[in-house]
Structures are given as C-alpha cells and as structure tokens.
Amino acid sequence: MRKSLLIMTLSMSSVLYAQQRKECVPIGLSCEHLQNPLGVDRPSPRLSWQLADKRQGAKQSAYQIMVDTDSMALVKNKPGIWNSGKQLNSDMLIHYKGRALKPQTKYFWKVLVWDKNGRPGTSSIASFETGMMGVEHWKGKWISDNHSIHEQPAPYFRRAFKAAKPIKSARAYIAVAGLYELSVNGEKIGDHRLDPMYTRFDKRTLYVVEDVTRQLQQGDNVLAVVLGNGWYNHQPLAVWDFDKAPWRDRPTFCLDLRIVYQDGSEETISSDQSWKTAAGPIRYNNIYTGEHYDARLEMPGWDMPTFDDSQWHTVRYRKPPSTNITSQQTVPIRLVRSYEPKSMKKINDSTYVFDMGQNMAGLTKIKMRGKAGTVVKIKHGERLHANGRLDQSNIDVYYRGNKELEPFQTDILTLSGKKEDEFMAKFGYKGFRYVEVSCSEPVVLEKSAVMAYFMHSDVRPIGQLKTSSALINGLWEATNNAYLSNLMGYPTDCPQREKNGWTGDGHLAIETAYYNFDGITVYEKWMADHRDEQQENGVLPDIIPTGGWGYGTANGLDWTSTIAIIPWQTYLFYGDASLLAECYDNIKRYVDYVDGISPSGLTTFGRGDWVPVKSQSNLELTSSVYFYVDARILASAAKMFGKTADQQKYEQLSQKIKDAINAKFLDTEKGIYSTGTQTELSVPLYWGVVPEAMKAKVAANLNSKVEETNFHLDVGVLGAKALLNALKENGYDETAYKVAVQDTYPSWGWWIVNGATTLLENWDLNATRDISDNHMMFGEIGGWFFKSIGGILPDPAQAGFKHVLLKPIFPKELKESSITYNSPYGKIVSSWKSNGNKVEYRVEIPANARATFYPPANIRNGKVIQLEAGRHDLNLELK
Predict the structure, then answer these.
(1) Domain Alpha-L-rhamnosidase concanavalin-like, which positions (predicted)?
(2) What percent of the chain clears pLDDT 70, i.e. is strictly above it?
C-alpha cells in the first residue's frame, strides 16, 4: 500500500512538473531561418526560436543551447559539440559558437529556456546538416554533352551503379549552371522547380542538397539528370540582351552522391566520364518563351537500372562556371496552388480557350489524345480579344525571337498517337490567366484537359488580414497574388513580359513582402546577387541579376537603393543584422560613388516617379531624397557596428544632402516642395527630409492636394510608396484611408472593381504602354494596411518586434478589422470593432516581447499605454 502510494505521488509530481515545463516551451526552432535545413555552408549558422507561453508578461530570463552529432547526447543533456551554458538574457537569435563544424555532417540541437519565474522549459530536438563548406570538398567533375549553345534539345544524363551493402543514408549534392531535374531509380527527387536559382553564374554558382535515402536500394541503381537552359543559356533574343551574357554556355553540372552504409562505411558516386548522355523528348526549352516536347521521342524507363543505354554517348568535361560554388540556402520554388478552369470556350474544332479564373505565374498541365504527329500549341496570356481568342499584345512587347518557330509564352506538344499524352514544362514558367490550345488536327477537349499551377518561391504566409470591407480584403489578396507571382528566387517586375529583377519594384514592395511572408532567405539571396553585380566603382544595374543590361544612365538612387533599404528593412523586421553587415561595404561604395558625382549633395541619378497618373515630379528632388535615405541607413549601420569614423562621416553627409534639398526645393513661405505635386510633397515627408518646424505646413498642403483630386491618386511608383504613409504619420488618417479605399479612377480599388485578381502596372486600364496585368511596383498598399488599420510597426531601437509600436487608425467608414502578424517573437494581433462611438480593441503580444499603444487623434482622452506580453482588451471612445 505504501509502495503504491509512493508511485502515485511520484506520478503526480511528474505530471505537475511536466505541466509547469509546458507553460514555457521553445518552439519553431530554425537554423539560418529554415526548418531542419540541408546544405548549411556558414561556419557559424544562426539559430533561432520562439516561445510558447500564453501567460501575461511572459518572457525568457535565460537560455541554453546544446549541439551534438548524436541526438541521444541531447536527450541526456551531455552535448559534445557545443554547450552555450546558461545565458542570462532574452535573446532568441544566436550565432553558433561551438567547435568547428565539419562538412556533410548532421547536427542536432535543442534549446533550454527559463521563464520569468526562473522555471525551465525544453524544446524538441531539431537538426541542421552542413553542406560542402568549400569547393575543395567536391569529388565530382563538371560534365555536359558534346553540343554548343545553339543546340536546342535538352541533354539527358544517366549513371548506373551498384550499392553493395544496406544503406543508412544518402545525399545528392548537385551544382548546376542552368536548370536540372534529378531522379533516382525512376523517381523524381523532391518537389522543387527551377533549381538552382538564377545568379550571376560566373561569380556564384548554387548547389542543392537532396535526401535520396529512400529512393536508393541495395543492388542496382541509376542516377538520372535532365538539364535545362534557364538563364544560363538564353537562346532567343530580347531587348535585355540575355543572349549576350558573359557566362553563356551549354548547361553543365557537377554531382556527388554520398552514401553512408549501415556498417558505417562510405562511398561517393560522382559525375565523371562514366556517365552517358543523349537527347530526348524535350526539343527546346527557354525560360522566357516556352518549352517544346515531342511525345513520340519518349524513352520509357530511361531513368531505371534496366534501361539499355548502349546507344547513348560519352560526356565531356567542362571547367567550373565559377570558383564560388555555394549552397542554395533559400526556400524553394514550388507548385503551390492548383486551378481547374473556370470556363472553356470552343473556338473551332481545333482551338479551345480556357479561363483559369486567376492571373498567376506558373505552369499548365495538359492531358489529351490525338493522331501521332499532331502539333499542339499551348499559348498563355492575361487578356482576350473580343472574339474570345487569346490576346498577348500587352505582354509580347520586348521579345525579338522567331515568333513562328519559338512563339512567346507558348509550349508546343507533339502527340505520340499511342496513348493519352501528358505534358507540363520542366524548365520555365508563364504569366497568365487564359490558356489557348490550338491543334494542327481537329481534337475533342474537355474542360478537365487543362490544369494550372500557381508557382513561386514557397515563402511561408505570416500575415493575415480580414476586415468588414470587401474592397480592402480584395486588395490585400490581389497584392499578395501579384507579389507571389513575382517571386522566383528573386523579386521580379512581371512574370510574363520581362521576368526581370527590377530593383525599384523590389524595395518599393519590401514592407508588403515582410508583413505577409517569411521571405528573408529570398532577399538574402538577392542581396548576394547585388554584391556580385556591383562594379568596383560602386555602381549597380537596375535589373539584378543581369546578363549585362542595366548599367545605363538611369540606374540611380530611386531604383538601386535596394542595396541599403532591403538590408535595413530586414534588420527592422527580423532583428537580424547579418545581411546589413554583409552589405555594409557595398552600401558604402555605392554612397561614396554618388557622393563623388554629386558634390552639392543633389543628384539627378535615377528614373523618377515612374508611370505617374498625370503630374510629373522633379527627378532631382526624388533622387536626392533617396541619396539621403541611403546615407542615413549607412550612418545608422556604422553606429550599430561600432564604426565611429564612418558614423560621423555619413551623418554629416546625410545632413548636407538634407540641407541641399531643402535649400533648393522647399518654399518655406508656402510649405511646398518644387511644384507641390502629391509625390513632391509626400516623398520628403515620408523619408524624413522635411524640417520639424515645417512638417505641419507641408502635410497640410499634401492633404489639400489630395482633397483637390477628391481623394484620388496623382502619383507614380515613388509617390505610391510615400503618400499614404506621409498622410497617416502626420495626422491625416481619414484622408489616407479614403485614398486607400477609393474605387474610381485613378486608384488601387479601381483595378479591383474592374475584376483584377493581381495588381496592375498602370492606373489607366486603357493605357497603351506599361500595361502588364501582374505587376508589383505599386504594391505598398498591401503593407500599408498592416501599418495603418493594424498599426503594427517595428521599433528601430529594439528591432525584430522585440518592442512593437502600435499605431492603428480607426476610420469611421470601417466597422471591423482583424490583422495578425507572426513576428520573430510570435503572433501579434491587432483587432478591433467599432459600434457607434465605441471601439473594442484587442491586442495580443507574443511572449518575450512588449508593446506601446499610441492612440490615434480621433480617440477621446487617448493615452499612450505600455503593454506586456499577453492579451489586452481596450475599450476606447471615438471623438
């Protein structure tokens, strides 16, 4: 009886202890901002986590990190690789500081935390796996087929081998100049598309690590690779000179398959001259135009061990495309959403048009039967002619190739005649809503013959918006659709006409990006592209990556300030200064270059307020403001990194620029800049150029200017970024809101009420140029809703939302809003309902963070309130 009682007491104690530990538990463990990544090349990777603790005032008083190659060592709390010891602080983003990491090695790690009361909690065990960590560790050779850049059929490769013993684990490390698809024993590996990402191939080549343990078998195996051209071997002509890229060559790859057997021994199967190659059914592939596939040339079982490859050819060695072969540490591109046709229209016996109901970037899959040799053209576009046929006139603008043999945004399938043929392009993507299928012979197609797949960098959604306004909800959804359509390992302008990484589009939309998606790894990759493209004198092209186009006369500050703005915003949103540190010297070279050509502090280096509604704004004013922004960011970064001399130098430079702008453009008597357009007033206000004593006057003039247009936009891209923020931050909440939800021309809402499912490139639906229907350069609106009706803002003094600035607005016309943002510390909720003159405001702040609420001007007796972690319900009264 006493023994049973003792067991019961111990059991109850264990339960109570477990419950106590569960009150505060580290969750969401990430390495390099990825979950359990493979191929980590950094010697000191970043480890981060969040805290699951719903109690009021929850916080972390200490942490301890443990790392080992044996997970059981962590279970026993006896790590041999790194034990940080108990660290008495609240940091949740830590650089690894243990023993030197070995290449191609799996490491396990966990975190212990102590809560506000000193009670411990333990995470589950996570892992990361190092990559090559240096080109010297590669065993494989770079191989290709024996053809030139002009050869059109894609090369297929295979290598048969035997695995003599039971397999414990296997990893394929594959570096490619071009694109690839890897299969093992007939099974495609992974769900990525367009690997590896587009880079400046002669400066940096990416490799991908694939876990192929499950696909390998003891006995006979075969590795199979198909290569695509991608941006490496751009064959057709376009105005961007893709075909003249200095790196251009026939696609090539290097592969190491590292096998660890159950007995602990290892073997590496590498790319060498034992591989064989042949052409196959992919007869042409181009990321810009389309893919041509002849189903009559399919090779059943070509990627299986039993296939007879005696008629295949030997490979040739190639020199590496660059000396910097580095791991692709970013979220992959995937097929994320599928769409069945909303409708199908039969034009005639051989032509059908499908409406997918959503403008998107991605691919179509077609399944059909027909006579052998029937040529099927699968044409993609955003618009229809009045007769129901596909209209590409708004996007087929810059292509200069052979439009008969290599039609724009068109895949070509030749039917086998033997079976139902299925085709989906491997090495490209299109921008489209409508699909026209035309055949050389009469065919019968059902609506189910075509499927569409929305494809993009598979960034995790972290922002959510829901309001009582259908227009706001639709605008937010359209903005996100446009953003994702233009995220393919780097942010692009449009997914059809250009696919270019326009720098201006990228930084103008960065806050929208970070409020809605966990995209840091994409931008870290893109900033590495910036560093590769920057010339010695500091100049950047305005499309990145580029094959050489873009180093012109207009690639100035309003566009290429990406080099400063994106690392700074990354720091604000993530509390991670790594990217800012990596880009510091590049920002400095860039600012120094502009300083050298702009001795007065003013510059005309830029493109100006691109695609304005009507009013033209002063180029020197807007470019000089961005010069000021870059100098301020550089001074702030210098202060952060303890570079005192640089801090002083660039603080003085930024003041010089600010004084020069105000001396030339500010009419202190009238309170206007230049001619007083919406852009000329909002840009200096938003970016902090206006002297404190003049802010109220300039803001009042901006408000009046907007009222003159009956709350409509009269801006281009620079004004669209600044206008709503300048109004909201200077006391004109209602004006800003009226502009944001305007639904007549010109406005964001005008697009939505006219049926747009993405954002457009031009305010005017009847414009004759700059008329892509899937563009992101006006995308600030999606982030502004988070900053305004949600009021969720980062504090530069405690970045990463360690301290949240809550500055919501409660517009009279809006009755309800719920906005959530999953910050690095966890979910922030800013939700409210209004009823008459009462506002019920609910706030949730994640553990280990805090917030300050700043009531808007229309709140009666509003007071600034300090909020700790947890839920807070505030009852407010409108004036």
Answers:
(1) 345-456
(2) 97
